Known about the structure:
The structure is a single chain. The chain is an alpha/beta fold. It has a domain at 49-133: Nucleotidyltransferase, domain 5 (2-Layer Sandwich), CATH 3.30.420. Helices cover 32% and strands 19% of the residues. The protein has helices at 17-34, 80-91, 109-121; strands at residues 49-50, 61-65, 71-73, 76-78, 98-103, 126-129, 132-133. A hairpin with a 5-residue loop joins strand 2 and strand 3. The longest helix is centred in the first third of the chain and has 18 residues, at 17-34.
Amino acid sequence: MIEHFKPRSRLEVEVPLIALLDIIFLLLIYFLLTTNFITEEGIKVKLPQARASAPQAEREITVYVDREGRAFLGKEEVSNARLFDRLKEMIGGQEDRLVVVKADRKVILNRVVKVMDMAKAAGAGRLCLATEKDF
């Protein structure tokens, strides 16, 4: 008795692309909604560049020094005497409070050192000079 075998049709594997696309879009929406879009307000200064700069994560007191050497707390310009008083008031005896000085790269170094000296005299436990990441 002769038997004839029929060639079986191969099973085709299908990748569920619709479900995969749904997951990708859901992940995209999730990351877009959970990303922080924080804008930092302050005086526009061009920071000096450094290769080893790292972002600061904690809340700090920021002092801006513009190109002309004027000091700002927030958007308010302050004189030397007033800067010392305001910093002392903002630090309020907290020894580990961080003061960040964001100085324009074209400003005279002496003015930045005076601002940092005032912050240290006002009771700042830590000082930081802000820089931009150099690529």
